[in-house]
């Protein structure tokens, strides 16, 4: 059954944290930001780690693959868990338990121990699924695309911010406090782990599962599906070919972003002879596009949906991924920095818009198994990153690897034409979309009327002398 009282506006209520929908929105994007920061916190320090642990290029490739491999399985599981115990408890436990390997990587002494912690850290990448799940249950169809895209995009900013903050934090420990480089990168990761532990505590106390309460309470009132139905609905969702098409397509956008987050700093360090900090700043430009690019993807997804229904959302997804692939191929052929940097930014724009476009489609595939769809599609991003990671295991030149990925992404864009919806579902969602817009107008009218009444009262008080002019 459909959850009620979802927010029908995002930006007009943006700072109204008294609304549980907006408070949850801000907590969920910040929690994802923290997780993403921690997930890729070690990436901009890899040149230091490589020298200390004497890692080969092949071993670095395995570390890249390991960092995203476990997330595939974690995202499958976390989607089911959200449907069963709710996003609030799911996020709390993921943040608290995920903080342990983030801090623990500082105990690494060789490649095997480093790889183990790198793999375990990858589990916090499942936070994305909870972020998308939680905003989906909080926002109505007319704004769910932009709410999903913005929360995920601002969360993904962590992957960009970490590219320059971690080298600076590392420098503080080494230059400011006089620690050795071997100690400096370890202490930097301990700080990050402690932060996400605290965010986990905050998430439990500042959010709730749905607009009307937590899942346990709603189930006791028979206002949502019972726990016993979750697994059955999950399995039904796995039989839907559209879920697996979106799985592949998300691999073609988010999977590429994960790969670039892992290799960008080292790519610019090795191929363009930049310093560690400079390479981090250049690599950060890719992730920092998330501040608006993913939001644009979701916003245009909602607009295409208002004009052409669900098939309009799918077509917008095709456009984004097609241009992402073309831009990636162009970037791969840029061998001087003043050309490579703008190519990287354009490529980043379409990559992140494609991610927002994907999750403007996901909420409408199967509402009875939202966690399943969000989890499976999210896992596709990491599966794509795992496969892409093999190209960077000293097999071929990295610029050639980017070219091959661009070709694959371009071909994958055409899968969007196979994401189809029944006429009945198109009609239902058009009605839901219209109802959400009407509700938005009603609330605006109520606010305008209240403001007018308040103004009239103020004028009346001034005219009768009860209030000074």
TrEMBL record:
SUPFAM superfamilies reported for this sequence: MFS general substrate transporter
Q: Where are the transmembrane segments?
A: 28-48, 60-78, 90-109, 115-133, 154-177, 183-206, 243-268, 274-293, 314-331, 337-357, 369-392, 398-419
- Could you tell me the keywords of this UniProt record? Coiled coil, Membrane, Nitrate assimilation, Transmembrane, Transmembrane helix
Main subcellular localization, coarse class?
Answer: membrane
The parts of the chain that form a coiled coil are 424-451
- List the Gene3D superfamilies: MFS general substrate transporter like domains
Task: Give compartment(s).
Answer: Membrane
Membrane topology of the entry: Multi-pass membrane protein
| Protein family per UniProt | Belongs to the major facilitator superfamily. Nitrate/nitrite porter (TC 2.A.1.8) family.
What is this protein's name?
MFS transporter
Q: Which organism is it from?
A: Sulfitobacter pacificus
């Amino acid at each position: 059954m459909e959850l009620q009282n979802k927010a029908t506006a995002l930006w007009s209520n943006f700072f109204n944290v008294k609304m549980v929908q907006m408070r949850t929105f801000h907590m969920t994007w910040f929690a994802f930001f923290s997780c993403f920061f921690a997930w890729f916190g070690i990436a901009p320090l890899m040149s230091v780690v490589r020298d200390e642990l004497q890692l080969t290029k092949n071993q670095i490739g395995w570390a890249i693959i390991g960092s995203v491999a476990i997330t595939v399985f974690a995202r499958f599981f976390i989607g089911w868990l959200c449907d069963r115990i709710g996003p609030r408890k799911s996020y709390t436990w993921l943040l608290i338990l995920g903080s342990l390997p983030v801090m623990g990587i500082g105990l690494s002494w060789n490649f095997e121990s480093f790889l183990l912690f790198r793999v375990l850290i990858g589990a916090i990448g499942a936070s994305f699924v909870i972020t998308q799940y939680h905003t989906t249950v909080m926002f109505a169809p007319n704004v769910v695309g932009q709410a999903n895209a913005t929360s995920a995009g601002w969360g993904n900013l962590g992957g960009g911010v970490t590219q320059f903050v971690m080298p600076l934090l590392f420098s503080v420990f080494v230059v400011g406090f006089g620690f050795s480089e071997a100690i400096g990168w370890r202490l930097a990761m301990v700080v990050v782990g402690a932060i996400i532990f605290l965010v986990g505590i905050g998430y439990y106390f500042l959010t709730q599962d749905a607009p009307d309460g937590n899942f346990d309470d709603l189930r006791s009132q028979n206002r949502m599906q019972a726990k016993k139905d979750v697994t059955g609905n999950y399995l039904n969702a796995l039989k839907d070919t559209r879920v697996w098409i979106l799985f592949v397509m998300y691999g073609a956008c988010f999977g590429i972003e994960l790969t670039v987050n892992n290799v960008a700093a080292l790519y610019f360090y090795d191929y363009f002879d930049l310093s560690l900090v400079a390479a981090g700043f250049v690599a950060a430009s890719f992730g920092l596009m998330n501040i608006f690019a993913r939001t644009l993807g979701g916003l245009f997804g909602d607009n295409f949906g208002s004009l052409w229904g669900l098939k309009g959302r799918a077509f917008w997804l095709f456009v984004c991924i097609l241009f992402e692939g073309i831009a990636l191929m162009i970037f791969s052929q840029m061998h001087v920095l003043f050309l490579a940097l703008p190519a990287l930014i354009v490529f980043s724009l379409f990559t992140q818009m494609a991610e927002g476009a994907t999750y403007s489609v996901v909420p409408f595939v199967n509402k009875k198994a939202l966690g399943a769809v969000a989890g499976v599609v999210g896992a596709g991003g990491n599966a794509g990153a795992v496969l892409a990671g093999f190209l960077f295991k000293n097999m071929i030149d990295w610029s050639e690897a980017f070219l091959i990925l661009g070709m694959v992404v371009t071909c994958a864009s055409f899968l969007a034409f196979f994401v189809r919806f029944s006429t009945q579902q198109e009609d239902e969602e058009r009605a839901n979309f219209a109802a959400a817009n009407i509700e938005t107008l009603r609330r605006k009218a109520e606010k305008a009327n209240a403001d007018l009444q308040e103004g009239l009262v103020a004028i009346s008080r001034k005219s009768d002398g009860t209030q000074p002019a």
